[in-house]
Amino acid sequence: MCPIRERSLKSDPGSQLSYELIRSKKRKKTLTLQIKRDGSVVLLAPERVSRAEIDRFFRDKEPWVRKKITERAENPERPGQEKKFISGETFLYHGEHYPLKIIETENGVPLSLCYGAFILRSDKSAEGRKLFMEWYRRQA
Known about the structure:
alpha/beta, 4-stranded mixed beta sheet
């Protein structure tokens, strides 16, 4: 069975936020918010949840939604943009952006995610793309 899609506008006249509501029989308990690359908001809900409960959930999460939309506008992901593998450049992992730090060492693994940052050995920076591809594959 296909999920039911509804276009829903926020009832608060001062708010410019809107969301697309997708109801599903398969979804058992949870309400979920997704913010798409284009900044649109999708709210996933079980079919049995009342409209009042959905609106209350969205109102409670509205500050988070605004924050995420602002973050995305300030740090746009540009598909196809080439990475340079330099310190400070960010890489996405599990929905979070982690900065890259290039360190001067020849010991240890060439690339790791440690203490909230990707660590790349300076002697391996020329191989950055290959190392990241391998690292992401191992995590999958």
